[in-house]
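Following up on my earlier thread - several people asked me to post the actual chain instead of describing it. Fair enough. Here it is, all 205 residues.
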Amino acid sequence: MTLRNRLTLAFTALLCSPALAHHPMGGSTPSTLTDGLLSGLGHPILGLDHLAALVAVGLVASRYASGALLLPVLWIAGMGLGAFAHMNSIDLPAGEMLVAGSLVLIGAIGVLKPSLPLPALAVLFAAAGFAHGHALAESIIGADTAVVGAYLIGLVAIQATITVGTILLVRRLFSMPANLPVRAAAAAMACIGLVFLIAALPATA
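Reply from S.P.:
Thanks for posting it. Predicted structure:
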């Protein structure tokens, strides 16, 4: 199997995963440390928009020879701040649209050769991470402090694994991360974001 086919199969499997609820606990607030950890690990995977965003972050970051890990770090830091904001009743207007819109934007950047300087892109990623973290915190509001901590540990662990794993996968399979399969994968992530963005539009009416 060629390298291109392997990458195509990997992303096809990701896109064809069955639609599942966003919350591993079935929508219930986690009540134990184990529930909190599992919810944190599962929430970004079960939400296709969040999973696609993590893959898109890795795809874009893989195209930087230096500072590639900075973008996932800032994404995760922004995610933590967004979760903290939501848990402290600081709400974002049109949060679902911001989540979907940020995915469209990051995917589009992955399709094009990034022309933004790394500091500007870093700010964008931190802001997008904030929007996603704000949305992800919805399932943990009202839980005990220790459970919240376990949830956040799970969130950080799974997001670091997916973003850094995507960077390593792209660099292992391709000597030039800007080539067509990687750009096509980024376009697929942007299309997922567009679907979620369109779906979120009626909620704002």
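Residues 30-204 form one domain. That should answer part of your original question.
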